Amino acid sequence: MIQNDIELQAAQERILLFERILAEARRTYSRANYAAMAEGYLLEIEKLQAEIRVYLSCQPESVEGV
After folding, report:
1. Which residues are CB-neighbours of 38 under 8 A, at least 6 positions away?
2. Is residue 2 part of a domain?
3. b/e per residue 43-61 (b: at least 16 CB within 10 A)
4. Which residues contact 2 (CB under 8 A, 6 or more apart)?
5. Is residue 40 part of a domain?
């Protein structure tokens, strides 16, 4: 679970890295091999996106009093 903005940035960077890996793999792997290798990356991207949504849906405590 993402706890702060530093972890948010790290999760966003991991998603970008995984997307770059998948984009390159689409050009170099056969369809069958790509499907097999991509599954884990796609699941991790979905997991990270869900964590980012949860983190961004909550307002920081320091802003609530404004």
Report:
1. 22, 25
2. no
3. eebeebeeebeebeeeeee
4. 8, 11, 51, 52, 54, 55
5. yes
The residue range of the domain holding 47 is 31-57
Among 17, 22, 14, CA closest to 38: 22
Number of domains composing the chain: 1
What's the length of the chain? 66
Domain assignment of residue 53, yes or no: yes
* pLDDT tens, residue by residue, 10-63: 999 999 999 999 999 999 999 999 999 999 999 999 999 999 999 999 987 765
The backbone torsions φ and ψ at residue 29, rounded to the nearest 5 degrees and listed phi first, read -95, 155
Please give the single-letter amino acid code of residue 24.
E
Write down the pTM of the prediction. Answer: 0.85
Decide if 5 is inside a domain.
no
